[in-house]
């Protein structure tokens, strides 16, 4: 008997992306995470991996009993199949799958799929409605297009690292895949935009060209325009902001840390009254964020002194009573215990067939009618190969055996 596809509890409501089939041919983080987001809202995700070289994300990060824990989240809601796209028989199988699919996500270096006869023209000959998301470090053209591209390079080239860190310290990279994560969310949005154009406006399937170096560049806000118009180059400011003050991380008496933000003028006034310095609110420079930022040494000293004399919970309670913006600086253990995260079920429990109940990030947002769901955790390499090819392409056990024998699957 051929293996069957995974069974999981049905989502609590019809899924928003039910009926959408996605071929996830990407590896590591940006492309696969985009597919994960689509799968969380009901898209049918077919994760395609090389028979002998699984997605390296399976072995990234911590593991337990040989099970990659990052993969449990990244691979959730995906059917896992193997396929060597570089072989003619493998390319043919992908074209057959693509003829039935809505979306294909890939992150090969530009020119690789074309060399295998799987470029956009080939895929669109098989299915003109297919949305093809190409998620690469530098995009499909330009002098860097064929370079290896990773999130770390995007964090460096986008201007993010140059802005991050203390004024007298080096540029600082984030300790997690920030650029990949942001690019993944943008890719998922781009795919849905292309699907809307196709299904609502009757357009064809189109190609999404997403360079990982670009989304973080967008998050820089007005900095490119300010450089263009004023020639200004922002410097690293640590935890301070050039737009307002007080804005920083402050230590409390009991060894904890809290973050204070005063983006709104009224909040800045309430903070300074709370910490016993209402007189500064009458200063002309206090009337705007830039003026307050220019006096950050003074304001940080006054706020920091008041906070350092009190325990964290006392500080937070006083700020909340004064309707001033504050939050504790959390580690992961704090996040697990926080009542707001618990109320939102931000870290939800999912049953894994090997590890049992495990906690992971829930779906990104709550939709009132189609809330999304985690139906199963990341599955083993190639677990659904025979079931998917038999169900979708009608391949017989003999045909599957032959494909396995020559290492196409």
Distinctive features:
three-stranded antiparallel β-sheet, single chain, six-stranded parallel β-sheet, 409 residues, 18 helices, alpha/beta
Write a compact overview of the structure shown:
The chain is α/β, with parallel strands linked by helices. It has 18 helices and 13 strands.
Helix-strand blueprint:
Elements: E1 21-24, H1 30-40, E2 44-49, E3 63-64, E4 67-68, H2 69-74, E5 78-82, H3 88-98, E6 103-106, H4 112-115, H5 120-126, E7 131-136, H6 151-157, H7 160-163, H8 178-201, E8 207-211, H9 213-218, H10 223-230, E9 248-251, E10 257-260, H11 265-274, H12 289-294, H13 296-308, H14 312-321, E11 326-328, H15 332-337, H16 339-344, E12 347-352, E13 356-361, H17 385-393, H18 397-405
Parallel strand pairs: 1-2, 1-6, 2-5, 6-7, 7-8
Antiparallel strand pairs: 3-4, 9-10, 10-11, 12-13
Helix pairs in contact: 1-8
Walkthrough of the structure:
The longest helix is centred in the middle third of the chain and has 24 residues, at 178-201. Strand 12 and strand 13 (356-361) form a beta hairpin. The chain is of the alpha/beta class and 409 residues long. It contains 18 helices and 13 strands.
Distance between the termini: 19 Å
Order of strands, main sheet, comes to: 5-2-1-6-7-8
Helix content: 25-40%
Contiguous low-pLDDT stretches (5 residues minimum) are none
Rg of Cα set: 25 Å
Structural class of the helices, strands and pairings?
Answer: alpha/beta
Mean pLDDT: 95
Oligomeric state: single chain
Instruction: Choose one word for the global shape.
Output: elongated
Strand content: 5-15%
Largest sheet at a glance? 6 strands, parallel
Number of strands: 13
